[in-house]
Design goal:
- By secondary structure, this protein is of the alpha+beta class.
- It has 2 domains: 251 residues, Zn peptidases (Aminopeptidase); 78 residues, Peptidase M42, domain 2 (Elongation Factor Tu (Ef-tu), domain 3).
- Helix content is 23%, strand content 29%.
- The strands form 3 sheets. Strands 1, 2, 3, 12, 13, 14, 15, 16 and 17 form a 9-stranded mixed sheet that branches. The protein has a 6-stranded antiparallel β-barrel with strand order 4-5-8-7-6-9.
- A hairpin with a 3-residue loop joins strand 14 and strand 15.
- Helix 1 crosses helix 3 and helix 3 crosses helix 7.
Length: 350
Amino acid sequence: MPTDANAHTFSPLLRTLSSIPGLSGHEDVIARHMADALAVTADEVTVDALGNVIARFGAAGQTSIALLAHMDTIGFLVNRILGDGLLGVVPVGGVNLKALPGAPVRVGDLPGVIGVRSEHQARESDTLATASSLYIDLGQPGAVEMTTPVVYASAPVDLPGGYFSGPYLDNRAGCAVLLEVARRLTRPPDMTIYLIGTVQEETNCLGAYHALQATQPSATIFIDGTVSHDTPDTAALGQVALGGGPVLTAYLYTRGGNSWHVHPGLRTHLKQIARDNSLPYQQDAVEGLMSDAKTAVLLGLPSAIVGIPMRGKHSPLEIVCLDDLEHTVQLLLHAISRPLPDLRRGHPRN
């Protein structure tokens, strides 16, 4: 069982959130759910033209901090009707091709399965699935419109020891953290807090850009899934482990010069808060991962990422430790209850 008494609250919350569709660019249903849940305690909730959910706690116009988690997920769009209940698809976002064959999906309202050849018909020349070879099997012909969204439909599983496996924990785990922060939040009298669910992170990150442009917070903290290194095939790549606490990320990089650097003062602030409150945390620098946090850099806003370690990221079933979610909530609650440090760069500190 989870070692933290509050961690048990996350399993039913994750089951609910991971079952709500929200393919990148098609986030209306999850946005409505998040807006309704945040409206219970927020002073104001708005949903902008892109679908970002922006909840304000406290009076506008003060020093402000924004906590952001993306609501969208990876998946597919139907782009070919192959006949006999078979559909061709195009991936939306970075799907994990190795994990796809045989996975259950939903095509709009219809159940389906990602096609896989029987092992008895395997050939020595067979290779891993490619994006162009993917197809959906509906079992029989159905009325499916071109460009219909396709999302994973794997059943979640409570694992022993306080672990949880389910679809789309990246980043419904971050959404769960936002909702728990909202539920427990005590408003500081001199700070405005924005809790923001963003759209289109998995494809372009432009949702976060517009949400931050509208709110202009003094500092930004992004809650997102991050990779772990605690399985035999990942142990040589780093030291992040499930159950070790949230990850205070320093650097992200993907090919083509697409990178992000943490604001050192904000990261130091979060590390000190964790130490002061005896909260576990981990640190990492990651190649092959990107985040909405890059939009804060474009707007000149100090940013940090609090990562939730995950196994099997972007596969039909991802795995988290519920204690990590609870410790993330605790870290963020402490962070937004304190005044922000001096975040100016290149100035001497007294």
